[in-house]
Amino acid sequence: MRLRNRLTRAVGKLLLPAALLFAGCGENPEGVPISMAQRTEVASVRPPEPAEAAGGASAPLRVAIASILSPSRTLDDYHDLLTYMGQRLGRPIRLYQRGTYAEVNDLLKNREIDLAFVCAGAFVYGERDFGLEALVVPVMRRKTTYYSYLIVGRASPAERLEDLRRKSFAFSDPLSNTARLVPVYQLRLLGETPEQFFSRTVFTYSHDNSILAVAEGLVDGAAVDSLVYDYLAARNPDAVAGTRIVARWGPYGIPPIVVHPALDPAVKRALKRFLLSIHEDPEGRRILGRLLIDRFAEAPRGMFDSIRRMIARVERR
Fold it and tell me: What is the spatial distance between Cα 24 and Cα 170, in angstroms, rounded to a whole number?
């Protein structure tokens, strides 16, 4: 497929920090998948002196991160945090990655992992499916919210979603809130569906891929995570120079760190205590700073209600 080949060649231009893995999530759709993600399980990440070496008493803590960027990039950016976590908790850390948010949810549902960095939409679906719990949320730029941006090419005459009728459009992951659920919800308010409204839709499986697809004219529009777009605009403006924002939807509760509801209560308490206190330690603050995270906090009550309401509206026939 020409689009797949061009986007694959172009994707090497964009490298983002792992903070941008906190990208939006939502509804399970139909469309043409264009996946740049390698579905690999990354080798174990272990602290310098893992508990296993001291006697094998501590089982690894199994952690998954939603695959927004390449597995190798995720491992590079999260290595310090995972190593620090292992040292503080006295347990080796094993990192798992999958190509889609749904696959990470399956790992959680089947209790094949203990902790995961997931997206807000994927969390809400997991909560409904098997009681997935939000342990903490990241505070980024002093906020626990983010937005969905509707973007088009710099030279496009489009000024709103309605102007993209019969045009091509990129979603990221099928469970993306900002890059799938939100635009589908906006179409529903217009009495439309993606299949009726757009001439063609694709999945890029990455917000930066979607931005690149629009910038290079591979698609006419896309919905993307504000955290990803704003970071690129500030740090790598050339990456978004070929695009512009025509709508800003939100705010929505930021993607959480989650656990299975049946995780050992003592382990759950230890993880929560650790995550809530990282910023109090100089080394912890340094590591969080590299990920553009101020600190972790408890999720306020009702934080994800707007996503729940959108899902209910989209699923209503």
Answer: 14
